[in-house]
């Protein structure tokens, strides 16, 4: 049987790491093709080259694959290079939007990457599994790129899968699920693929097509039921445009209600695709928040970036959200082509008028986007091709009106009241004068950071053998973990007790000793300790 190891590369906490949906779809495709698959998740586990080598050697894969976006591309490519060193006879693949649209540079810079899966991957992976040992056969697999000597071969374009219901559900059983549940971010699903819009800064249309292909409400509800059975209660619907079809949304909400599925969910939408009836129906089925990409408060800018919306539509959608009582979020981009202080001020004026939650991101001209490929047509200069900087959290472009530092200074000045308010709330908590809601906000943030340290440093796994007595073991663990995370003993004990109560962490007793482990994972053994020490 063909053995496939898929690798989830590290992802920073401030980017809200959640179970890797695309990689789980890839795993399901490999499994459907008859392969044995493991998923080495370094999003919620510590990554070291030694650990990677140990885990790959133990599995001995025939195929090693990963997927990434631009901001973690370099890290993912480095890990795939380490994997090739550990398993030199394995075939290495990379997928995802960055590799799909930066093929030549990726293959040139990383000789350890044998092939790139372009765009929608499932059918490509299925065909690859059957013939991967014969490289001459790769030419007949649509949707791939690879080297043939000094030449880069790009095969024919892969047609999009028209019936998404034919896809197996994502293989989330391969993930360390207890770790994700402890971290607390929503788990993502898709109800369709495709984006009919032409925004110049986005890859959605090129990655998954302009025609929106929907999964059936029944199939989506099946997946939701499976997630609820796994213990997830918060779901993010990650469609590029969930509200592309009102009829389809209404049908899905009806299916959710008919089955009595109780969960909270969020969506990405557009201001010109919602109305009062739709929002009320979504809320009745459990939808708690809607995110709108607004990008700019300047009419000419919206036209320039081909956003396809108007200011009046933004104001109407926000008013509807206020009226029905659904939480709404507006996303703005700073540093769009031709950006000036005046256009940024119009964005601020718009977000002040609509009075919904908002956030500013900085333009990141990803490979494959229109704004990058046709930059000569725009008032824009890109100052870096360091992909680590493409996280939309810093300015890497300038216009004829604004430098990167001026763009950042404007956004920081606008966000200063928010940052100051958060600092004030934290200070009130320290003084004991915070409200209950403020205390919960600070406690939740503190808990999230503490748990992420446990996860991405494997602190729980590294605890030494404990006394078999549960109370003594917990006291010892609390003292150790508090010191490693620079947390208080009280908070560490409170959090560990909660993890044990929810059964996301388990204490395994063996004779006179015991070990802590995340639920579903075997506790560390003396043998593995010696291996790690070596």
TrEMBL record:
It holds the Pfam family Radical_SAM. Its cofactor is [4Fe-4S] cluster. Residues 3-139 form the B12-binding domain. Residues 181-400 form the Radical SAM core domain. It comes from the Bacteria. Keywords: Iron, Iron-sulfur, Metal-binding, S-adenosyl-L-methionine. This is Radical SAM protein. It comes from Desulfoluna limicola.
């Amino acid at each position: 049987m063909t053995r496939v190891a898929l690798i989830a590369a590290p992802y920073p906490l401030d980017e809200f790491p959640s179970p890797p949906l695309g990689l789980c779809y890839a795993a399901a495709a490999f499994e459907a093709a008859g392969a044995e698959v493991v998923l080495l998740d370094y999003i919620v586990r510590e990554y070291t080259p030694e650990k990677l080598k140990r885990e790959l050697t133990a599995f001995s894969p025939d195929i090693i694959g990963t997927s990434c976006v631009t901001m973690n591309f370099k890290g993912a490519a480095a890990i795939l290079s380490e994997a090739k060193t550990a398993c030199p006879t394995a075939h290495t693949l990379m997928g995802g939007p960055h590799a799909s649209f930066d093929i030549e540079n990726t293959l040139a810079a990383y000789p350890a990457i044998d092939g790139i899966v372009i765009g929608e991957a499932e059918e490509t992976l299925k065909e690859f599994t059957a013939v991967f040992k014969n490289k001459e056969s790769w030419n007949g697999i649509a949707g791939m790129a690879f080297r043939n000597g000094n030449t880069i071969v790009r095969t024919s374009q892969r047609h999009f899968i028209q019936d998404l219901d034919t896809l197996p559900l994502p293989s989330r059983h391969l993930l360390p699920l207890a770790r994700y549940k402890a971290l607390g971010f929503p788990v993502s699903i898709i109800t369709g693929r495709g984006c009919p819009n032409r925004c110049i800064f986005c890859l959605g249309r090129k990655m998954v097509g302009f025609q929106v292909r929907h999964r059936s409400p029944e199939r989506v509800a099946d997946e939701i039921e499976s997630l609820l059975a796994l213990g997830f209660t918060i779901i993010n619907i990650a469609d590029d445009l969930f509200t592309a079809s009102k009829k389809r949304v209404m049908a899905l909400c009806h299916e959710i209600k008919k089955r009595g599925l109780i969960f909270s969910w969020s969506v990405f939408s557009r201001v010109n695709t919602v109305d009062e009836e739709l929002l009320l129906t979504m809320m009745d089925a459990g939808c708690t928040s809607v995110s709108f990409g607004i990008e700019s408060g300047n009419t000419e800018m919206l036209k320039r970036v081909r956003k396809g919306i108007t200011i009046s539509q933004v104001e109407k959608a926000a008013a509807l959200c206020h009226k029905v009582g659904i939480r709404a979020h507006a996303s703005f981009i700073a540093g769009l082509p031709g950006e000036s202080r005046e256009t940024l001020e119009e964005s601020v004026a718009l977000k002040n008028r609509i009075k919904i939650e908002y956030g500013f991101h900085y333009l990141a001209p990803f490979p494959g986007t229109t704004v990058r490929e046709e930059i000569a047509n725009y008032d824009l200069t890109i100052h870096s091709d360091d992909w680590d900087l493409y996280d939309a959290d810093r300015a890497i472009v300038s216009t004829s009106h604004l430098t990167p530092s001026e763009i950042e200074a404007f956004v920081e000045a606008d966000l200063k009241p928010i940052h100051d308010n958060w600092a004030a709330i934290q200070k009130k908590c320290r003084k004991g004068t915070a409200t209950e809601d403020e205390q919960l906000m600070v406690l939740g943030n503190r808990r999230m950071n503490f748990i992420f340290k446990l996860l991405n440093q494997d602190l729980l796994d590294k605890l030494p053998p404990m006394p078999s007595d549960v109370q003594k073991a917990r006291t010892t663990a609390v003292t150790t973990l508090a010191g490693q995370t620079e947390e208080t003993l009280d908070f560490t004990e409170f959090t560990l007790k909660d993890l044990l109560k929810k059964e996301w962490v388990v204490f395994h007793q063996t004779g006179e000793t015991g070990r802590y482990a995340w639920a579903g994972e075997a506790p560390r053994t003396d043998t593995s300790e010696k291996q790690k020490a070596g």
